[in-house]
From TrEMBL:
<feature type="binding site" description="in other chain">
    <location>
        <begin position="38"/>
        <end position="41"/>
    </location>
    <ligand>
        <name>IMP</name>
    </ligand>
</feature>
<feature type="binding site">
    <location>
        <begin position="299"/>
        <end position="305"/>
    </location>
    <ligand>
        <name>substrate</name>
    </ligand>
</feature>
<dbReference type="GO" id="GO:0005525">
    <property type="term" value="F:GTP binding"/>
</dbReference>
<dbReference type="GO" id="GO:0000287">
    <property type="term" value="F:magnesium ion binding"/>
</dbReference>
<feature type="binding site" description="in other chain">
    <location>
        <position position="239"/>
    </location>
    <ligand>
        <name>IMP</name>
    </ligand>
</feature>
<dbReference type="InterPro" id="IPR018220">
    <property type="entry name" value="Adenylosuccin_syn_GTP-bd"/>
</dbReference>
<feature type="active site" description="Proton acceptor">
    <location>
        <position position="13"/>
    </location>
</feature>
<feature type="binding site">
    <location>
        <position position="40"/>
    </location>
    <ligand>
        <name>Mg(2+)</name>
    </ligand>
</feature>
<dbReference type="InterPro" id="IPR001114">
    <property type="entry name" value="Adenylosuccinate_synthetase"/>
</dbReference>
<dbReference type="GO" id="GO:0044208">
    <property type="term" value="P:'de novo' AMP biosynthetic process"/>
</dbReference>
<feature type="binding site" description="in other chain">
    <location>
        <position position="129"/>
    </location>
    <ligand>
        <name>IMP</name>
    </ligand>
</feature>
<dbReference type="GO" id="GO:0005737">
    <property type="term" value="C:cytoplasm"/>
</dbReference>
<dbReference type="InterPro" id="IPR042109">
    <property type="entry name" value="Adenylosuccinate_synth_dom1"/>
</dbReference>
<feature type="binding site">
    <location>
        <begin position="12"/>
        <end position="18"/>
    </location>
    <ligand>
        <name>GTP</name>
    </ligand>
</feature>
<feature type="binding site">
    <location>
        <position position="305"/>
    </location>
    <ligand>
        <name>GTP</name>
    </ligand>
</feature>
<feature type="binding site" description="in other chain">
    <location>
        <position position="224"/>
    </location>
    <ligand>
        <name>IMP</name>
    </ligand>
</feature>
<keyword id="KW-0342">GTP-binding</keyword>
Length: 429
């Protein structure tokens, strides 16, 4: 089983970090293939320690797996070094980290533009984190981006940055009345990062090819999730990369024929951060209950997450789009104590029932959820480890999710801890 892709089936924050960590001791490589430090994974170890990871792959907490940041990631070196230092101080071995030299850098002008453009958009804002992710990907596509490998050549770094700042400083100063970015200070700052990052920069594609040739297991984890995919999500309220399974090949440099399993993670309900359509969003006491009991606040930003019932239309779309082989349902315990647990099984759009994702942005904005109500349960399920230990109504809920998604549910999360899971089918042989 050489390559496994782990993706989110909703709008992110589904608990991918927990699943990555769950598999980390049984895989040889863990690869982050998309996004930047606008995403985060929260992992709780068996001894109760909590780690909030932003750029580092969740496999960093595995005692033996190599951890890779692939070419599809955009890297803020200051954030990455802070994270490396924080993990090292807590006794985590970070010497196993390797970063693709082709990964693009987030520069000061990216962060400045991200913040000022978002403010300028006002009520039409996308809801970015202001960390420079979108502008960095924009420069990558425009072919004026700066890569990690450029840190190793001071002349190249200065030349590329000077070229980029000719335009960016004009925009910052003349359009938005903001202070221009200083070329010399930025070059000096980033060359300082280069000294520390140099041991980690590598040709990661070749490393992964060799690992696959040795039949070692490579786990590829995406940030964000399917509905935030640049091409397949709720555009324009999306991220700036492709966190879907297809993006794993591009963002890590491995062939699609190497992928043998795609694991999708979904909460037992739905959350979203930032602006954009969200058909099952709740504005009542139920939504507040999900937010409070589920601790729905962003790992990276601390922002409140919008909460709603499980959307089977979105989940089924994600399963089909990504070729999902195994579905992991997290936070089932958050639904405990609700007398009824609705599932969105379709939408009503302009008086017409639809069961699949609508084609147009306009239709999706106007989609009204069609609910099917299931009976809830009151029993504490956090100690359950086998299906038989779950209440009958909880089992019925999972079975209905499985049926609606036409994909087997292999793991059910019943608490935040690493071992708080019910295993229905093994994820690895």
């Amino acid at each position: 089983m050489p390559a496994i892709v782990l993706i989110g089936a909703q709008w992110g924050d589904e608990g991918k970090g927990k699943v990555t960590d769950l598999l980390g001791e049984r895989v040889d490589y863990v690869v982050r293939y998309s996004g930047g430090n606008n995403a985060g994974h929260t992992v709780i170890t068996p001894d109760g320690q909590k780690y909030a990871l932003h750029l580092m792959p969740s496999g960093a907490l595995s005692p033996s797996a190599m951890i890779i940041i692939g070419n599809g990631v955009v890297v803020d070196p200051k954030v990455l070094l802070t994270e490396i230092d924080g993990l090292a101080e807590r006794g985590v071995d970070v010497s196993r980290l390797r970063i693709s030299g082709d990964a693009h850098l987030i520069m000061p002008h990216h962060r400045a533009l991200d913040r000022v453009i978002e403010r300028y958009l006002g009520s039409s804002r996308i809801g970015t984190t202001g960390r420079g992710i979108g502008p960095a990907y924009g420069d990558k596509v425009a072919r004026i981006g700066i890569r990690l490998q450029d840190l190793l050549d001071p002349g190249i770094l200065r030349k590329k940055l000077e070229l980029a700042l000719r335009e960016k400083n004009q925009i910052l100063f003349k359009v938005y009345n903001r202070k221009a970015i200083d070329l010399d200070a930025t070059v000096e700052e980033y060359l300082g990062y280069a000294e520390r990052l140099k041991p980690y920069i590598a040709e990661t594609r070749a490393m992964l090819w060799d690992a696959l040739d040795r039949r070692e297991t490579v786990l590829l984890e995406g940030a964000q999730a399917t509905m935030l995919d640049m091409d397949h999500g709720t555009y324009p309220f999306v991220t700036s990369s492709n966190p879907t399974a297809g993006g794993a090949c591009v963002g890590a440099g491995i062939p699609p024929t190497a992928i043998t399993k795609v694991i999708a993670v979904s909460k037992a309900y739905t959350t979203r951060v930032g602006a954009g359509p969200f058909p099952t969003e709740l504005f009542d006491a139920n939504g507040e209950h999900l937010r409070k009991i589920g601790a729905e606040y962003g790992t990276t930003t601390g922002r409140e997450r919008r909460c709603g019932w499980f959307d089977a239309v979105v989940a089924r779309y994600a399963c089909r789009l990504n070729g999902v082989t195994d579905l992991v349902i997290t936070k089932l315990d958050v639904l405990t104590g609700l007398p009824k647990v609705p599932i969105c099984v379709g939408y009503e759009i302009n008086g017409v029932r639809v069961d699949d994702m609508p084609m147009s942005q306009t239709d999706f904005h106007h989609a009204k959820p069609v609910y099917e109500e299931l009976d809830g349960w009151w029993e504490d399920i956090t100690k359950a480890r086998t299906p038989d230990e779950l209440p009958e109504n909880a089992r019925r809920y999972i079975a209905r999710v499985e049926e609606l998604c036409n994909t087997k549910v292999s793991v059910v999360g019943v608490g935040p801890g690493r071992d708080e899971n019910v295993l229905l089918h093994p994820l690895l042989p």
